[in-house]
Design a protein that fits this description.
Chains A, B: It comes from Simiduia agarivorans (strain DSM 21679 / JCM 13881 / BCRC 17597 / SA1). The structure is a homodimer of 434-residue chains. With 434 residues, chain A is α/β, with parallel strands linked by helices. The first copy, chain A, has 14 helices and 17 strands. In chain A, helix 5 links the parallel strand 5 and strand 6.
Amino acid sequence: MKPVKVGLCGLGTVGSGTFAVLSRNQSAISARAGVPIEIVHVGARRDNPACDLAGVKVSRDIFDVARDPEIDIVVELIGGTTTARELVSTAIANGKHVVTANKALIAEFGNELFAAAQAQGVSIAFEAAVAGGIPIIKALREGLAANQIEWLAGIINGTGNFILTEMRDKGRDFHDVLKEAQALGYAEADPTFDVEGIDAAHKLVILASLAFGMPLQFDKVFTEGISQIAPEDVNYAQELGYRIKHLGIARQTEAGIELRVHPTMIPAKRLIANVDGVMNAVLVKGDAVGPTLYYGAGAGAEPTASAVVADIVDVARTLSVSTSQRVAHLGFHALANPNPNILSMDEVETAYYLRLLAEDRPGVLAKIANILAEAHISVEALIQKEPINGAAEVPLILLTSRGRERQLMLAIDKIEALSEVHGGVTHIRVESLG
Amino acid sequence: MKPVKVGLCGLGTVGSGTFAVLSRNQSAISARAGVPIEIVHVGARRDNPACDLAGVKVSRDIFDVARDPEIDIVVELIGGTTTARELVSTAIANGKHVVTANKALIAEFGNELFAAAQAQGVSIAFEAAVAGGIPIIKALREGLAANQIEWLAGIINGTGNFILTEMRDKGRDFHDVLKEAQALGYAEADPTFDVEGIDAAHKLVILASLAFGMPLQFDKVFTEGISQIAPEDVNYAQELGYRIKHLGIARQTEAGIELRVHPTMIPAKRLIANVDGVMNAVLVKGDAVGPTLYYGAGAGAEPTASAVVADIVDVARTLSVSTSQRVAHLGFHALANPNPNILSMDEVETAYYLRLLAEDRPGVLAKIANILAEAHISVEALIQKEPINGAAEVPLILLTSRGRERQLMLAIDKIEALSEVHGGVTHIRVESLG
């Protein structure tokens, strides 16, 4: 089958991430798309030593990529709105589909670019423009297509969320944390875009237009940053049962549509109040589905590349596969794994919680630990309760290291056979999901 | 444009929910699909008084729907695996696309049904089969298409999660909560499918096949229920910093693939550990994107209908719209809201957190409350701190009722003008996001 040919403009963080993901996962990605996907032309002012460009045409003038007659999809990852706008317009005029991660470009010039794409019969895909690797644009345009969206609220700037999380966890001051975020590379030397909410406003405008079916209107967003949040406000919020998050909120009301980015106090028990550090999340309220939440990394080379490549696959599927089979039933046109080896539970490794009743005298714990050690399982934590009403037996609770299920079950048999242990050993598997 | 014609089989909970959502949101759904979507034929053993079937052909024999030459898409919402399997096979043989919410059917007979659909050039869509309204199947097949999925873990049975949440929150016993869940309609009279993990195993098999590109293998899942979880285990888990959740876990390891459903202890700080009540969530770890989480209602008439209708829109988009414009840039082919009224911040209503320094003497609080009352804003909570080092002024923290931003700002001006108030009034907007 004729491959889908991609031209990649920009080899910075996201560009090199996209190059890496497409190279590393090439076979799985092509099996999902139903057609090979190849980067055939890269436009970049200079090479990036992280990318092996052997066999790929390289141009110093990115407009050469947009005009290359070989190419089906132009991927714009140069950022900014001046050259990027020209590049995307040129690609569209040359009949190319466009994939971009550029939130400012879409928020500020999306209306004109979409109209041009429509006229040319090509598409502009921009999943990576909002919330990095979280497929929130696909969720709003497709997954929630049945719903009237009532409102959405998002933590859509990781830098701001990192600062607020540090302020809460460590009682630190805004300016102090900002300096650390800059040192860690989370925040730019000029942090205005992040901490004053402009970056979040760009993303909110895009989400709101998808939710409510309206043109992009960046100039209508109310924007307030987090630089005025004092440590005492963070503490009082906690005392009242709330957390402060920098939210982008879009809401359809009878009077009109609210579009606003500002520090917001939300009940601490809400899931979105517990989204910490640089992570992003978007909470969407639909009339049929109720609340749904989408969580993940909102920035970074490979998370953003994940969304860029998903868009490339989307375009490739639409271009190349018969319409009735655009997406294969199990996602892969040729199953990546037609004959997988499914492990029996015996072979699975996890950590364990064990609870048992043991006689309250010296040496019992040592016997149990020895049995576990023979199974190559160690004790990571222990709760030993006082005997109840002077009973001779006490509950013993153990958290173990990871071990193989079969070994653990044999160890439990041996522990249950100890005369000092009364009754069975309760076990629950423990996963860190980290 | 020629409408896409839908035949709906089954008018139970999900069937009548689907009918309601398609009727209520018809114009927005058609604008998203780019083509009108109409239910033209309903198959059900009896009418459902909740559905106004005027103008819709009704058959008592659902197979009449599957054979109706007018119909493009057959929606199977009858449940079970015997008649449903025959119905879907008949629909496929008659060249219909199929949308189903039937997890057992897909998990147990998906391989044969997908092969039949492939041969006929039609598609079977099953977003509603896993985690109700959460678009997790779309996320795995499309949104995360760039990734090698390393593992996934899901709370994919709401009944089980409700029981475990009640056990933790209220220290109740399994059997006691189960009875309540049955009374509330969350659990069936025979709760085996839910509490022994069979329902979760059906869903896990589907997710795992999408993640790893492998055939559906229901008989390979290890399944352990939650009926053995004792209240003391719930407490000890909490003491150790963990929570117990009934998880479906699929993981690709060097030795093979793990497929297992069992009670699992996970660190309390993980987002998924905080998914409570009947809600579902799926945590997916991709090699490029890292961890992403998808949260929402996993069951219920309209949440499930949300997924059923999204699948109908998906098929309709593929059937009727030029391939390059399968999904409109902003999701709607004709913008639902071309000239929206975006509210100015002055017009927005929220609640507020206020912090100020006031002299520590009688009457000050009354003056402040009066100013707020004139602005139709009341005080919902108050923290008044002791004066620091015998200072004459004390921090005063107020949580207000919802009020209009402009009124609140005027009230703040008046509060700041009080001689007893020193310095400015800090305000942070409060949203319940409930």
